[in-house]
Amino acid sequence: xxxxxxxxRFPLPRALFVATIVAIxxxxxxxxxxxxNETAPPPFHRASVANNVLTLPMxxxxxxxxxxxxxxxxxxxxxxxxxxxxxxxxxxxxxxDSIRRLVKVQVESLTDPGARDYKWEGEDTLRVxxxxxxRGFWCFDDRVAAAERPESDTAKTRRWLLxxxxxxxxxxxxxxxxxxxxxxxSELLLFYGETTTITGVDCSxxxxxxxxxxxxxxxxxxxxxLGP
Length: 228
What we know:
Number of strands: 13
Low-confidence stretches: 4-39
Mean pLDDT: 83
Order of helices and strands: EEEEEEEEEEHHEEHHE
Structural class: mainly beta
Strand content: 35-45%
Number of domains: 1
Radius of gyration: 17 Å
Largest sheet: 7 strands, antiparallel
Strand order of the largest sheet: 5-6-7-12-11-10-9
Number of helices: 4
């Protein structure tokens, strides 16, 4: 399954994305932070979130530390077009019940034996904490995107957030890191997003939006730290 999306594909110097590798104590899988909303459905993939650190037993070399500026909202699970199963973990910085910035982690695995393996195409390949990621940039109105594709992961995540009292209305811009597991049947997606009201960026003007990307990448780096 070759994945391409309507991402910005602006080239940036690699030095703009430097994830600090830090040592983080391992957390027991049973020691999971309680989400701030309703009880999450049973996950498809085992995971641990403790003290804003996300680990995945199925990917032992992966450990994500989310900045303390973000609160862990919880997780949701769903199926995608009878081809895949996905778990989404969400962290947010909010003003009232409105999301200002978010970190979204999505773990997805194919369930259809006839589906093609995951494959991301992109020119911006990064080596971070010993693993290769394809980086992309995105900008869209979550409400509009969900309305256009009501059974998409975007729509299902949005419905879960709204049901839990979290609102992410308006246009968001951010970064995406995609990593395919060695067997090609699972993938990991890391999203950082922020409302465009933070910088006033106009995503309809790609040249103008491109000038904002270095600062967005810097805030993404500060929000998400990958380490051993």
